[in-house]
Design a protein that fits this description.
With 110 residues, the protein is mainly alpha-helical. It has a domain at 31-105. The chain has helices at 3-6, 9-19, 31-78, 91-101, 103-106. The radius of gyration is 47 Å and the shape is rod-shaped. 0% of the residues are buried. The model has no long low-confidence stretch (mean pLDDT 76).
Amino acid sequence: MNKCENMEMNKCENIFEQVQKQTPYRTPEGFFDTEEQELKRAIRRRASKRLWLRYAAAAAILLFAAVYPLMHLMHSSHANEVPLYVQTDNTQGEWTDFAEADIFLENMDW
Protein backbone atom coordinates (compact mmCIF):
# COMPACT_ATOMS: atom_id res chain seq x y z
CA MET A 1 0.00 0.00 0.00
CA ASN A 2 1.32 3.38 -1.00
CA LYS A 3 1.90 6.11 1.61
CA CYS A 4 0.00 8.55 -0.49
CA GLU A 5 -3.04 6.31 -0.35
CA ASN A 6 -3.02 6.58 3.46
CA MET A 7 -2.63 10.36 3.40
CA GLU A 8 -4.61 12.89 1.64
CA MET A 9 -3.50 13.28 -1.94
CA ASN A 10 -2.69 16.97 -1.76
CA LYS A 11 -0.41 16.53 1.30
CA CYS A 12 1.64 13.91 -0.56
CA GLU A 13 1.98 16.15 -3.60
CA ASN A 14 2.95 19.04 -1.35
CA ILE A 15 5.94 17.09 0.07
CA PHE A 16 7.24 16.25 -3.41
CA GLU A 17 6.91 19.86 -4.44
CA GLN A 18 8.96 20.96 -1.44
CA VAL A 19 11.73 18.38 -1.93
CA GLN A 20 11.77 18.39 -5.74
CA LYS A 21 15.17 17.08 -6.91
CA GLN A 22 17.16 18.01 -3.83
CA THR A 23 19.30 15.42 -2.08
CA PRO A 24 19.91 15.29 1.65
CA TYR A 25 23.70 15.25 1.09
CA ARG A 26 25.69 18.47 1.13
CA THR A 27 29.36 19.24 0.71
CA PRO A 28 31.21 21.70 2.94
CA GLU A 29 31.57 25.26 1.72
CA GLY A 30 34.51 25.57 -0.72
CA PHE A 31 35.05 21.79 -0.85
CA PHE A 32 35.56 21.52 -4.60
CA ASP A 33 37.87 24.54 -4.78
CA THR A 34 40.02 23.13 -1.99
CA GLU A 35 40.15 19.69 -3.60
CA GLU A 36 41.17 21.22 -6.92
CA GLN A 37 44.08 23.03 -5.27
CA GLU A 38 45.16 19.88 -3.42
CA LEU A 39 45.14 17.86 -6.64
CA LYS A 40 47.22 20.49 -8.43
CA ARG A 41 49.78 20.51 -5.60
CA ALA A 42 49.97 16.70 -5.62
CA ILE A 43 50.56 16.68 -9.37
CA ARG A 44 53.34 19.28 -9.05
CA ARG A 45 55.03 17.28 -6.26
CA ARG A 46 54.87 14.10 -8.29
CA ALA A 47 56.26 15.85 -11.36
CA SER A 48 59.17 17.28 -9.36
CA LYS A 49 59.96 13.83 -7.88
CA ARG A 50 60.03 12.35 -11.36
CA LEU A 51 62.33 15.14 -12.51
CA TRP A 52 64.76 14.41 -9.66
CA LEU A 53 64.66 10.70 -10.46
CA ARG A 54 65.57 11.49 -14.05
CA TYR A 55 68.48 13.66 -12.89
CA ALA A 56 69.69 10.92 -10.54
CA ALA A 57 69.50 8.30 -13.30
CA ALA A 58 71.41 10.55 -15.70
CA ALA A 59 74.09 11.22 -13.07
CA ALA A 60 74.47 7.50 -12.38
CA ILE A 61 74.87 6.76 -16.08
CA LEU A 62 77.47 9.52 -16.48
CA LEU A 63 79.37 8.30 -13.44
CA PHE A 64 79.40 4.74 -14.77
CA ALA A 65 80.51 5.98 -18.20
CA ALA A 66 83.39 7.89 -16.58
CA VAL A 67 84.54 5.18 -14.15
CA TYR A 68 84.19 2.05 -16.28
CA PRO A 69 86.89 2.95 -18.85
CA LEU A 70 89.30 3.87 -16.05
CA MET A 71 88.71 0.58 -14.27
CA HIS A 72 89.12 -1.30 -17.53
CA LEU A 73 92.37 0.57 -18.26
CA MET A 74 93.76 -0.17 -14.79
CA HIS A 75 92.84 -3.83 -15.07
CA SER A 76 94.39 -4.25 -18.53
CA SER A 77 97.66 -2.50 -17.51
CA HIS A 78 98.17 -5.00 -14.67
CA ALA A 79 97.16 -8.04 -16.67
CA ASN A 80 100.64 -8.68 -18.15
CA GLU A 81 102.57 -8.18 -14.91
CA VAL A 82 103.62 -11.22 -12.91
CA PRO A 83 103.77 -10.72 -9.17
CA LEU A 84 107.20 -11.19 -7.58
CA TYR A 85 106.04 -13.54 -4.87
CA VAL A 86 104.86 -16.28 -7.22
CA GLN A 87 106.95 -19.42 -7.11
CA THR A 88 107.44 -21.70 -10.02
CA ASP A 89 106.92 -25.43 -9.79
CA ASN A 90 110.63 -26.15 -10.24
CA THR A 91 111.96 -24.46 -7.09
CA GLN A 92 113.98 -27.46 -5.94
CA GLY A 93 115.85 -27.63 -9.22
CA GLU A 94 116.60 -23.90 -9.18
CA TRP A 95 118.11 -24.07 -5.67
CA THR A 96 120.21 -27.06 -6.66
CA ASP A 97 121.52 -25.21 -9.73
CA PHE A 98 122.30 -22.18 -7.55
CA ALA A 99 124.19 -24.23 -4.97
CA GLU A 100 126.23 -26.09 -7.62
CA ALA A 101 127.19 -22.83 -9.30
CA ASP A 102 128.39 -21.20 -6.07
CA ILE A 103 132.18 -21.42 -6.00
CA PHE A 104 132.41 -20.41 -2.35
CA LEU A 105 130.43 -23.42 -1.19
CA GLU A 106 133.03 -25.70 -2.70
CA ASN A 107 135.82 -24.12 -0.67
CA MET A 108 134.01 -24.36 2.67
CA ASP A 109 135.14 -26.83 5.32
CA TRP A 110 132.01 -28.43 6.46
